[in-house]
Amino acid sequence: MLRLSCWAIKAPQIVLHSIPRRSISLHQTLRMRLVQFQHLCTRKIGLELEAGGNVVDLNAFDSSLPCGMKEFLEAGETALQKAKRALDSGQHILNRSQITLLAPVTNPEKIICVGMNYVDHCLEQNVPVPKEPIIFSKFTSSIVGPSDAIILPKESKEEDGMAYVAGFTVAHDVSARDWQMKKNGKQWLLGKTFDTFCPIGPALVTKDSISDPHCLGIRCRVNGDLVQDSNTNQMVFKTEALVAWVSKFVTLKPGDLFLTGTPPGVGVFRKPPVFLKAGDVVDCEIDELGVISNPVL
Domain named Fumarylacetoacetase-like C-terminal: which ranges (predicted)? Predict the structure, then answer.
């Protein structure tokens, strides 16, 4: 379960952006895979030509574009239109081997995670489906890239809607189950937010590029073994409901992330329980979004 002491895939992940209300219909025509990457020791923004393929260097095409995803999203429709022009130009294409892919967003103000948001996950725990979203958080220091290592903590045992949604990505909600279930008054926060405990990627896939975010296959493998296999149609609260609900309590900003729940198969609920250990490799995959693969150190 993608929760450090276990695995628990979280998806699809929602990334917010800033758009004027009158420009929504224009934005809906933009289909792209936005990435953050490093090239020659410099962080940049790019577009994947295809999943796992070469990347268009947006900053090389237009130096006025921000080099960070959060700032790019804050620029709203203007930045997205420049990105489309860069894609259409066919210029400034970097071979995948020339770059290092970073997390799509590295500095969100909030990482908002939703617990028990898959019907089949509630069933595996023998608990009732919640009547309201169960919200927890992660700190930005927990974010690492789609291929970066998940580092085990020394102190822990081995565990409105859619209009404002920019796109979706894959996330691995790593958890230290001893801290989550037995320490800190059984509050979830500390067990969820150790450094590196939130790999995300490989790309921010714009919502217009996805057939239906609420009908996507979602899988997790540990060392090649399939441990979670479900579909986002099992989510209790859909994307629109989650954005509206959370907006009652906090102000959402461009680049903010929602981790929308985990399907069944997490290690802590297996008999016997199974926890991640150094040397393991965890692959998290969502149809149309891609795969992230992270070693455990």
Answer: 157-296
Strands 143-144 and 198-206: parallel
How far is the C-alpha of 12 from the C-alpha of 116, rounded, in Å?
14
Q: Which of 239, 215, 235 is nearest to 162 (CA)?
A: 239
Does 57 have pLDDT greater than 50?
yes
155 has a pLDDT exceeding 60: no
Q: Tell me what the mean pLDDT of segment 224-248 comes to.
A: 93
From residue 130, give the alpha-carbon distance in Å to each of 133, 188, 235, 237: 7, 16, 11, 10
Count how many residues are written for the chain. 297
Look at residues 51, 3, 47 and name the one whose alpha carbon lies nearest to residue 289.
51
Q: Residue 64, by phi and psi: left (phi above 0), alpha (psi -120 to 50) or beta?
A: alpha
Q: Give the contacts of 130 (CB within 8 A, at least 6 positions apart).
A: 116, 117, 122, 236
pTM: 0.77
- Output the pLDDT for position 2: 39
pLDDT category, 183, cuts 50, 70, 90?
A: low
Higher pLDDT, 159 or 109: 109
Cα gap 14→20, rounded to integer Å: 19
